[in-house]
């Protein structure tokens, strides 16, 4: 499948997701819903997935270019970052720590639940 065809498919699924979100007032970003729809289609249409592979590998090889706008956005707010770096650093540290603790706690709970089912 040609690169342009694959890009068109990606944009069609993104547009479909956007339209569904707008029409049903869903609390999910349109591109995420479009990606889920595309995943479901590719899950059942293995031939299409294999045909898309070369073009998607080419797209993924240049994925780092898509992060340039985010880097520019950060540089636009560099003054604010300089003023509030302590709060940002604390928020990043605490959110990471809380995420790790919740994940570890959930893992322990699930292991106990699964182990107790194995015993019975």
TrEMBL record:
* Localization, UniProt: Cell membrane
Record's Gene Ontology CC terms? plasma membrane
Its keywords, alphabetically, are:
Cell membrane, Hydrolase, Membrane, Transmembrane, Transmembrane helix
Q: Which Pfam families match?
A: LrgA
Q: Does the keyword Transmembrane apply?
A: yes
One annotated GO molecular function: hydrolase activity
**How does the entry describe its membrane topology?**
Multi-pass membrane protein
Instruction: Give me the segments passing through the membrane.
Output: 27-44, 59-79, 85-107
Major subcellular location class: membrane
Is Glycosyltransferase among the key words of this record? no
Name it.
Murein hydrolase transporter LrgA
What is the species of this protein? Answer: Thiosulfativibrio zosterae
Organismal lineage: Bacteria, Pseudomonadati, Pseudomonadota, Gammaproteobacteria, Thiotrichales
């Amino acid at each position: 499948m040609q690169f342009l065809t694959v890009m068109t498919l990606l944009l069609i699924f993104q547009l479909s997701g956007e339209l569904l979100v707008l029409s049903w007032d869903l609390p999910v970003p349109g591109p995420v819903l479009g990606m889920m729809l595309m995943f479901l289609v590719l899950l059942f249409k293995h031939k299409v997935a294999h045909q898309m592979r070369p073009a998607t590998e080419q797209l993924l090889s240049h994925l780092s270019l898509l992060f340039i706008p985010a880097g520019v956005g950060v540089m636009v707010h560099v003054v604010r970052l300089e003023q509030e770096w302590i709060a940002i650093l604390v928020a990043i540290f605490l959110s990471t720590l809380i995420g790790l603790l919740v994940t570890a706690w959930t893992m322990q709970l699930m292991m106990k639940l699964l182990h107790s089912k194995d015993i019975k």
